[in-house]
Amino acid sequence: MPEHTVQAPGMPERVEAYWRANVALIRNLLLVWAAVSYGAAILFGKALAGVKFFALPLSFWFAQQGSIVVFVILIFYYAWRMNQIDAEYGFEE
Length: 93
Known about the structure:
Blueprint: H1 13-43, H2 45-49, E1 52-53, E2 56-57, H3 58-89
Antiparallel strand pairs: 1-2
Helix pairs in contact: 1-3
């Protein structure tokens, strides 16, 4: 199915392309975050439940601490990638 985009009046194509790149990046990072947050706790929960780490199941640590660590890494990646996208579309500071 072809992608149809309607350009807002007065919005240059460069700005629209920049916005599409930003939204695509956010969508992809949210998918990674959701996969890590729910995947570690739900998908691998039973397999990791038998392994104890500081008297708690390893699945707990992956779900609680792992998702936070990945979220912080995604924040830094987003900032780094947006700097590249800004430069690519001429919006660098």
